[in-house]
Amino acid sequence: MKMSIVLSTVLVASALFAADAPAPATQIAAAVLAAPAELRDGAAVLGYNAQGELVRLREGKNELICLASDPASAKFHAACYHKDLEPYMARGRELLAKKVTGNDRNDVRWQEVADGKLFMPHEPRTLYVLDGSSYDAATGKVADAYLRWVIYTPFATPQSTGLSTKASDGAPWLMSPGTVGAHIMINPPRPKK
To answer: How far is CA 95 from each of CA 12, 42, 104, 125, 187, rounded to the nearest angstrom?
Structure first.
């Protein structure tokens, strides 16, 4: 699927997002917080209009695409990922809008990749994720911010990476080994309260 087609497609986020989306500048500022600081200004940003439709808020100058769930919501979630992951991420959003979640969503996408219906890059590609309890547009800060990294490495195994499949805070570990969705998780220790 060509990048321009995927990015120009408008997805309806149904009940997942508020009809009164924050201003584009607020959404952009919130979304790029998941990216490394030196990549934020050049990242493309997707966001939501007042009808809850996913639209491109800003064109990019580098290889990152960023998206934040409604920055005004009680829970904050932002993700920035390599542009080659967009078809995979877009399909995930489509399935989520249809209430397909968790392992079922992965199963659908992985089968579509295997069938040649969905593109997934063979080379490692990174996803940056920032979660928190809320976003303050005035300060640009996320309360209880927790940043983690996901490196998609299709078909990676413990043998090929030298990584354990046991979840670990502070050390990389491998999820979904041997599958098209295999990925290395890097979860820094959560801050103590």
So the answer is: 11, 28, 9, 21, 26
